[in-house]
Design a protein that fits this description.
Order of helices and strands: HHHHHHHHHHHEEHEEEEHEEEEH
Strand order of the largest sheet: 3-4-5-6-10-9-8-7
Strand content: 5-15%
Radius of gyration: 23 Å
Helix content: 40-55%
Largest sheet: 8 strands, antiparallel
Low-confidence stretches: 1-6
Length: about 350
């Protein structure tokens, strides 16, 4: 259910990897020079990357004409990302007359090659009947393919479809899981829809710990509340986004608690770990959470559950191999700013 900690990226060998590393480090000029050399030798991905620089104005003034030129060259060279970006420009009519039919043609080719943004954009065309016949089932199918690659907008849109039963059978549990995944990536539409879903359900108990409403608290308030509770501090340092505590004395049955914050000190993520030597203990902890928040909104496999409280997502995750049960509180509006730090 949760993203794994980020690891050091592994760059490809050769000039492609050198350019990617330079770009990631903010050395746009070096990346651009390498991509220009590769593009001159027919590299479609490098052509697409140059189009992105001009489109977004990175390392240069924004230039829609140059962006279209490079995206078109990349598309004609057979690069799926170039096809996707060229199709997007054609659909939007940016820098050239809008042509939804031609956009759909390029997006379809890229989507069938597995390009997730093209899959999402093709789904959008089918949903809205632009350049292709309006077809909710086809839209849902393309959103599903993109969502399987964790494309954020597709996750949100497919969740909306499952919530309404649009192009797919209505499934609130599936909708919640998809919207949750998109919300944790910072999708504002997904966050808003989760809040709408929470209002439509039977009102749930607010997420309150140590007297703090987790949807509204911040680092200073949480530290003050935990000091009053005499929490044993393992790490409480502003150089780190996560404070860590030995929680045994303040949360019965638990071992450790981590609380992570965004740069503006808003709470994004709180995780409490419990020892769970067997499934019976894990089920007992799950029962404790259900007694507080009611039946879960959705489940993921046998060992994970989530409760949609709108502004806060509560989740449990049982790890039999680690003999551990984790209880997590996440603020979707903030959580995506706190990962991997």
């Amino acid at each position: 259910m949760l993203s794994q900690p980020q690891v050091e990226p592994q760059w490809p060998a050769g000039p492609e990897g050198e350019a990617a590393k330079a770009y990631a480090e903010g050395n746009i000029a070096k990346a651009r020079k390498i991509w220009e050399e590769l593009a001159a030798n027919g590299d479609g991905q490098a052509m697409n990357n140059l189009g992105v620089l001009y489109d977004q104005g990175k390392g240069t003034d924004p230039d829609v004409g140059q962006a279209i030129n490079w995206f078109a060259k990349s598309a004609r060279a057979g690069n799926p990302s170039g096809m996707s970006n060229y199709g997007r420009m054609l659909e939007q009519g940016r820098g050239l007359p809008a042509n939804p039919e031609e956009a759909a043609r390029w997006l379809d080719i890229a989507a069938r090659k597995g390009q997730p943004e093209a899959q999402y954009n093709l789904g959008y065309l089918y949903e809205n009947g632009r350049g292709v016949p309006k077809d909710d089932e086809a839209a849902a199918a393309w959103y599903s393919r993109a969502a399987s690659q964790n494309q954020r907008d597709a996750l949100a849109r497919l969740g909306h479809f499952y919530r309404l039963g649009k192009g797919v059978p209505k499934n609130i549990s599936r909708a919640a899981l998809l919207l949750y995944a998109a919300a944790m990536e910072g999708s504002r539409p997904a966050i808003a829809e989760l809040e709408t879903m929470a209002r439509e359900e039977t009102p749930r108990t607010p997420a309150v710990l140590f007297g703090q409403n987790l949807a509204q608290t911040n680092r200073d308030a949480m530290r003050k509340a935990l000091a009053a509770a005499k929490a044993a501090v393992l790490r409480q340092d502003d150089k780190h986004i996560c404070d860590v505590y030995n929680s045994r004395t303040i949360v019965p049955g638990s071992n450790e608690m981590a609380i992570c914050y965004a740069s503006d000190k808003r709470l994004g993520f709180l995780k409490i770990d419990y020892a769970a030597p067997d499934k019976a203990r894990a089920d007992a902890i799950l029962g404790m959470v259900e007694n507080r928040f009611g039946k879960p909104t959705a489940g993921e496999g046998d060992n994970a559950r989530l409760w949609n409280l709108g502004s806060i997502i509560v989740a449990t995750q049982y790890s039999p191999e680690n003999k551990q049960m984790s209880l997590m509180y996440m603020a979707p509006q903030v959580y995506h700013h706190t990962r991997g730090k």
